[in-house]
């Protein structure tokens, strides 16, 4: 063999669908003196594999050998994606499907169509409301989608292994938004809580006026507590439930300044101990609260309202514990059992600190949290009475207990 045609791979431009190739003549030796190839060097070659035929001639012009040169034109550019996505669509809750909306999702390859180069397109949709994944081949993902924020990723790949992707977001919004009142803040003073009235407008939807229900309802009794009460309002339309919420914060002293007076000291005040009167006043106050809470609980049960009754029952149990502790303190004061008075008073204080419906104040009426020194002294006031007694002796020297 007197001729050798080496294969050649070149990179073409997608915009031109190929490239001009200036290849070298085959390698040849005697008796070949000249070579001719077709298509000739400098010709345009599209994408794909091409065969170039080369002939070798001797001095007399006779063909003495030939070879075939393979030229492969490839692309190294990412397929370009052009999309048309509805980024935000609202559900029409008056037309089926009531909980979904039609979203137009289309994409195509914006590159010119070239012979020898094929591009495929596919998509992957991640549904934000459920985490579900939808995949398919093609550039049209239009359809009905549920409420939520979703992502679609378009993926393209050509026959040369070049890949590209484009991720876009689209959102399907509720077709209706229920509006709640602004947050409410009230001070109950010395009361346990307040009856709170609020109003939520009943909107007109799909040509009909719908009724909004709230839990707890307007006019409910809201107790004083550190955390706000959350009110959730809802309305149902065509099988769909729409909700909104707002907070009601009730602050106040709850007549708890008496607690600090009870913790004033462990001294023996004689037969006319002023703590007896204060304890009786607090017991009566708690009993009046019990009566009101029982009335609220009875009203709720009579009206088939059950969602908040556990709070009232818990409150009744806590009040019973408080009254029992106070009666024990009163009895021990009367019987001059001052070690027990100290223990039970500190136990009562710890109980109040952990009851959310109670706010403890110092002697100036400033609201405070539990103090670590009292917490450590008695370990909830029951396990180490000797420590309580030691604290009592110290209190006799100081003549007061400052919280």
Protein topology:
Elements lengths: L2 E2 L3 E4 L6 E4 L5 E2 L5 E5 L4 E4 L1 E10 L5 E12 L6 E5 L2 E3 L9 E4 L1 E5 L9 E8 L6 E5 L5 E4 L1 E11 L4 E11 L10 E4 L5 E3 L8 E2 L2 E2 L3 E3 L5 E3 L5 E9 L2 E12 L5 H6 L11 H29 L6 H26 L3 H17 L5 E2 L5 E2 L3 H11 L2 H14 L5
Parallel strand pairs: 2-8, 10-17, 18-25
Antiparallel strand pairs: 1-4, 3-6, 5-7, 7-8, 9-12, 11-15, 13-14, 13-16, 16-17, 19-23, 20-21, 22-24, 24-25, 26-27
Q: Give the DSSP E fraction (strand runs of 2 or more residues).
A: 25-35%
Q: Structural class of the helices, strands and pairings? A: alpha+beta
What's the alpha carbon Rg, rounded to whole Å? 43 Å
User: What form results from the Cα inertia axes?
Assistant: elongated
Low-confidence stretches: 254-267, 356-403
Counting structural domains, the number is 4
Molecular structure report:
26% of the residues lie in helices and 35% in strands. The chain is built from six helices and 27 strands. The strands form ten sheets. A five-stranded mixed β-sheet has the order 10-17-16-13-14, with no helix packed on it. Strands 2-8-7-5 form a four-stranded mixed β-sheet, with no helix packed on it.
């Amino acid at each position: 063999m007197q001729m050798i045609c080496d294969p050649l791979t070149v990179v073409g431009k997608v915009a031109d669908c190929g490239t001009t190739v200036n290849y070298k003549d085959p390698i040849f030796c005697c008796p070949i003196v000249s070579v001719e190839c077709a298509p000739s060097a400098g010709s345009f070659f599209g994408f794909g594999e091409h065969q170039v035929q080369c002939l070798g001639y001797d001095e007399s012009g006779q063909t003495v050998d030939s070879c075939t040169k393979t030229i492969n034109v490839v692309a190294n550019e990412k397929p370009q994606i052009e999309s048309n996505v509805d980024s935000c669509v609202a559900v029409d809750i008056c037309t089926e499907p009531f909980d979904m909306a039609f979203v137009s999702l289309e994409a195509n390859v914006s590159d010119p169509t070239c012979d020898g180069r094929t591009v495929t397109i596919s998509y992957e949709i991640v549904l934000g409301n459920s985490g579900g994944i939808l995949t398919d081949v093609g550039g049209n993902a239009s359809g009905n989608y549920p409420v939520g924020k979703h992502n679609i990723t378009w993926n393209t790949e050509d026959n040369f292994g070049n890949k590209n992707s484009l991720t876009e977001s689209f959102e399907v919004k509720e077709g209706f938004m229920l509006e709640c009142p602004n947050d409410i803040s009230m001070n109950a003073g010395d009361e346990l809580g307040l009856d709170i009235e609020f109003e939520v407008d009943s909107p007109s939807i799909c040509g009909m006026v719908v009724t909004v229900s709230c839990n707890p309802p307007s006019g409910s009794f809201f107790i004083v507590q550190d955390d706000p009460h959350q009110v959730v309002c809802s309305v149902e339309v065509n099988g769909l439930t729409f909700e909104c919420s707002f907070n009601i914060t009730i602050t106040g002293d709850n007549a708890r300044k008496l607690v600090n007076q009870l913790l004033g000291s462990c001294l023996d005040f004689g037969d006319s101990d002023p703590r007896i009167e204060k304890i009786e006043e607090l017991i009566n106050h708690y009993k009046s609260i019990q009566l009101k809470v029982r009335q609220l609980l009875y009203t709720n049960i009579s009206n088939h309202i059950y969602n908040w009754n556990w709070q009232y029952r818990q409150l009744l149990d806590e009040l019973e514990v408080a009254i029992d502790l106070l009666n024990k303190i009163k009895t021990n004061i009367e019987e001059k059992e001052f070690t027990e008075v100290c223990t039970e008073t500190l136990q009562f204080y710890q109980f109040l600190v952990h009851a959310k419906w109670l706010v403890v104040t110092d002697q100036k009426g400033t609201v405070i949290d539990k103090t670590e020194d009292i917490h450590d002294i008695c370990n909830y006031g029951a396990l180490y009475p000797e420590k309580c007694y030691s604290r009592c002796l110290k209190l006799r020297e100081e003549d007061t207990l400052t919280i």
